[in-house]
TrEMBL record:
Topology of this chain in the membrane: Multi-pass membrane protein
Record's catalysed reaction(s): 4 Fe(II)-[cytochrome c] + O2 + 8 H(+)(in) = 4 Fe(III)-[cytochrome c] + 2 H2O + 4 H(+)(out)
Record protein name field: Probable cytochrome c oxidase subunit 3
Pfam families: COX3
Organism field: Mycobacteroides immunogenum
Record flagged with keyword Cell division: no
Length: 199
């Protein structure tokens, strides 16, 4: 594999066996975030058990094709981040830059799809005050959407660093942290998709 800088990146290749990506502080945040969403999922499950017919009625109004498209865009974005990080470890900055752009593009498509979905519900009066299903739907997916926007900012910072061929300002550890956060966003959406659209 050719390295754009002409130097094999021995100091940048942190993907060895047993290596924990990112920084310890990041994992504290990740675990806290997962705990909060775990509470969300438990609340959803408990309320579903209390009002199954109401939740089934709400689920019937959801567009599974849109939800599936949202899921596929985030999975594709996560795959692009993995490839980008691999290129970054080998100091292939331009390739990493293009992959980060692809990840951002897929993430932006998710945001557009979610906006379309929100607009579709609001146009028929299905808002956060229209019942428990939609209250939880808008709150949980809205918080997740906020995480997506934060993640896109992180990916944009990584892309800018790759474009400037100055990754020293964006260390591999930081790139790993951005990637871990984005994968968490992806996993959380897969669970939300299953709860809201399928189960």
């Amino acid at each position: 594999m050719t390295v754009e800088s002409g130097v094999r990146p021995s100091t940048h290749r942190r993907g060895t066996a047993g290596h924990v990506p990112g920084e310890a502080e990041l994992w504290i945040f990740i675990m806290g975030d997962l705990t909060v969403f775990g509470v969300f999922f438990t609340i959803w499950a408990w309320n579903y058990a209390q009002h199954p017919q109401l939740f089934e009625l709400g689920r019937a109004s959801m567009s599974q094709p849109i939800g599936l498209a949202e899921t596929l865009t985030l999975i594709s974005s996560s795959a692009a981040v993995v490839i980008a990080l691999t290129h970054a470890r080998w100091e292939q900055w331009s390739r990493a830059y293009r992959c980060y752009l692809a990840a951002i593009g897929f993430g932006a498509v998710f945001v557009v799809l979610k906006a379309i979905e929100y607009g579709r519900h609001l146009s028929v009066g299905a808002h956060a005050l229209a019942g428990e299903f939609f209250m939880y739907y808008f709150v949980f997916t809205g918080i997740h959407l906020l995480h997506v926007l934060v993640g896109l900012l992180g990916l944009s910072a990584a892309a800018r660093s790759m474009r400037a061929n100055a990754p020293r300002r964006c260390s591999i550890a930081l790139l790993e942290g951005i990637g871990v956060y984005w994968h968490m966003v992806d996993v959380l959406w897969v669970v939300l998709f299953s709860l809201i659209y399928l189960i």
